[in-house]
Specification:
heterodimer; A: alpha+beta; three-stranded antiparallel beta sheet; 13 strands; 12% strand; globular; B: alpha+beta; five-stranded mixed beta sheet; two-stranded antiparallel ribbon
């Protein structure tokens, strides 16, 4: 937007007779244009400015708008239907997660970060846990099984997040069957999450030191079956949209952002890969043993919405392949670091009342060992101390590079936790993608950025 | 009795030294680890007679200080290339280099941050194409360096990550904006301004981004309370999180 300033002109006391803008009531910009502030009234009179000058409409799209992918407010300056300028206003979902984490223990932090980008909360938990582990210096003590479970859960979350991206993209562009197919395919992944972590969202499953509990018995068969269903469902999406003429018309050549633009704006993830650069943190800075898995980095060279859609489809495939490799790598063993000063007692079983409890552990601390009771109490109320310092741990989230900047002052709580959220960073590219295009393409561009406002605002 | 021994009350109970011992300010100037805080006692008890016996504990919080060469990994190469770019200004621009936990931090004097970023971006041997954003940290005990702006730079060409850190005093919270070099820092600098009150000079429109425009204060500073109300549960009252006992 130009550095225009607005000055209120005219008489503001009298009422407009027809509900439209009055000749006397306008804002004068420094460029000499007149800006009329209209609301309500009859559309005919609103559209016809009293002076007949060249008119531009500034429209607030959102924050309560079904096509803005969440509580995102877009301020669009329109000339007819073409977008002259567009700015995003965020902050409507700011919940102060980073500040809140400074008042909870390191283990409780997982519960908070999972609510940032809630569509793929497991990625946040993973980045946070890896950062705490690097601060503690216990990165190489994480049991193999825990790492494999982390990779598996993270890839399922990626597939789930991409399915939501495709589904909401379909919803916003009017391809409602795309939405139902996408959400239908995501459902079995959430069912898996529910049987593994106990919750469909906001899991708090990946913790500093490992994961909160082992996989339930016989889950491997469920995962195998789900993978088969997901592959079939993925084919449904492809049959529905990949060659669909309307879909192609809405997405091809739309939301163009090339490599130079991505670099300057810090854009990562599917948007960066749609420019042909195979950048993926899982390959460049492998974590959790990603170097031992075989997968390809999906790329396209179209730089547009359609390319990003194809990349997401491809990445779902790749993620399912990785989950399959995880099943082969799963060997019995512990899922939490051996250091009892860090590992929370969490081997829960479901009791007859439906509540999760660890009966063996309760018997141990309440019946046989007073020291165990003291240690349990200290660990749960006070937490553990983390040596002072700061780390930055990059991971590949579903939307791009998800980095955790974590600072410790040697206490039992994070001193400062900052998530480098790909949604937040990528959303800045909205102006570069949309200006000069049509208003209808704005919706397509947003859906291809796939911002989750919980992550943007934190 | 040394000066660090806790004094005693008339009843013979030691009081927590928090009330009695002069706590030195943070020291980040000298060589070796930086002392950022000194804590006394344990269990978060302050201001009441200490019956735990741990009230005399004095805990110095030190974070890694300036590192000596060789830094290891690719860090030496980056430092050398940066030195070639900045020439004789290197020692003036780079306050210190800290290597900790396999990560490198260049502490840059705030007047030189834009120049350093330009070198980092444009030199083919450095080529940090992407900035991963700005994060703030508030260290109220570090006299005249209370506010830190932390930048992470990523080089896709060389597959490297470095951290730049700039400090500024609370009384003069100004840091030059790096948006001219890394446009991605636009929103990140607005966020850091919003949460910490660091003013990024030269930013095109440094307004609040997460908080409402008319908000007072900068919420992620340590002197800004978390807020909250006591919650009653089954007859007992749970205080809000920032009023609960801190074990740090």
């Amino acid at each position: 937007m130009s550095d225009t300033t607005y000055t209120k002109m005219g008489d503001t006391t009298d009422e407009a007779t027809d509900g439209g803008p009055r000749e006397s009531d306008y804002y004068q910009t420094t460029e000499g244009d007149r800006v009329y502030d209209v609301q309500g009234g009859d559309w005919e009179t609103i559209l016809a400015p009293p002076t007949g000058e060249k008119d531009r409409l500034i429209v607030n799209m959102g924050p309560q708008h079904p096509s803005t992918h969440g509580v995102l407010r877009l301020i669009v300056e329109l000339d007819g239907e073409s977008v002259q300028s567009i700015r995003a206003a965020i902050g409507y979902l700011h919940t102060g997660i980073e500040k809140n984490m400074e008042f909870r223990t390191w283990t409780q932090g997982t519960t908070f970060v999972t609510r940032m980008d809630y569509v793929a909360g497991l990625h946040n938990e993973l980045a946070y846990s890896l950062a705490v582990e690097r601060l503690l210096g216990i990165e190489d003590q994480i049991p193999e099984r825990a790492s494999v479970i982390r990779v598996m859960m993270s890839e399922l979350a990626r597939a789930s997040s991409h399915l939501v991206a495709i589904a909401t993209g379909g919803l916003e562009l009017g391809a409602l069957t795309g939405m139902t197919v996408g959400f239908r395919n995501r459902e079995p992944i959430l069912d898996l999450f529910e049987s593994i972590t106990g919750l469909r969202m906001n899991h708090g499953y990946i913790r500093p030191g490992g994961v909160s509990q082992d996989l339930p018995q016989g889950i491997e068969a469920d995962i195998t079956e789900t993978l088969a269903n997901l592959r079939k469902g993925s084919t449904d999406v492809q049959n529905l949209l990949v060659g669909n003429a309307i879909w192609l018309g809405r997405t091809q050549g739309v939301g163009y952002l090339d490599l130079a633009g991505c670099m300057a704006l810090g854009v990562t993830g599917p948007i960066l890969r749609s420019t042909g650069l195979p950048f993926d943190v899982r390959k460049t800075d492998p974590y959790c043993g990603f170097e031992n898995y075989e997968f390809d980095v999906a790329t396209q060279t179209t730089c547009d919405v359609y390319g990003r859609f194809l990349i997401r489809l491809d990445e779902i495939e790749q993620s399912l392949n990785i989950v399959e490799q995880c099943l082969d790598k799963l060997k019995p063993g512990p899922v939490m670091v051996a250091d009892k000063k860090i590992a929370w007692p969490a081997d829960l079983t479901v009791g007859p009342d439906g509540q999760g409890n660890s009966l063996a552990h309760i018997k141990h601390i309440m019946g046989t060992s007073m020291e165990a009771l003291i240690h349990h109490f200290k660990l749960v109320t006070e937490g553990f101390q983390v040596p002072p310092g700061q780390v930055y741990v990059p991971t590949e989230g579903a939307k791009g590079e998800l980095g955790m900047h974590l600072v410790s002052d040697g206490g039992t709580r994070p001193y400062r936790a900052h998530m480098r959220e790909p949604s937040f960073t990528n959303l800045q590219a909205i102006a570069a993608m949309c200006e000069g295009g049509m208003l209808s393409d704005v919706v397509a561009s947003i859906s291809s950025i796939d911002p989750v406002m919980g992550g943007v605002d934190r | 009795m040394s000066e660090l021994d806790p004094p005693e009350t008339p009843e013979g109970l030691p009081v927590t030294p928090a009330d009695a011992v002069e706590i030195p300010l943070a020291d980040v100037s000298g060589a070796g680890p930086d002392l950022v805080e000194v804590r006394v006692g344990a269990f978060g008890v302050h201001g009441s007679p200490d019956v735990s016996g741990y009230g005399g504990l004095i805990n110095k919080i030190e974070i890694a200080g300036a590192s000596e060469r060789p830094y290891g990994s690719y860090f030496d190469e980056v430092a050398d290339d940066l030195a070639i770019n900045l020439g004789s200004d290197y020692n003036e621009a780079i306050e210190k280099v800290v290597v900790d936990r396999g990560e490198v931090t260049f502490y840059v004097r705030r007047a030189r941050i834009v120049e350093v970023c330009q070198a980092m971006l444009h030199d083919p041997l450095l080529r940090f194409e992407m900035c991963l954003g700005v994060s703030g940290v508030h260290w109220p005990n570090e006299l005249d360096r209370e506010l830190h702006a932390v930048y992470h730079l990523r080089s896709i060409t060389h597959n490297r990550i470095v951290r730049l850190e700039v400090t500024c005093p609370d009384s003069d919270p100004h840091v030059p904006s790096t948006t001219s070099v890394y446009p991605t820092n636009d929103w990140h600098e607005r966020e850091t301004y919003d949460f910490f009150g660091i003013v990024f000079d030269g930013h095109p429109y440094l307004t609040r981004i997460e908080m409402p425009d008319d908000w007072l204060g900068h919420p992620q500073r340590k002197d800004y309370p978390l807020g909250g109300i006591p919650v009653e549960y089954k007859g007992a009252t749970v205080p809000p999180p920032d009023k609960r006992r801190s074990y740090s």
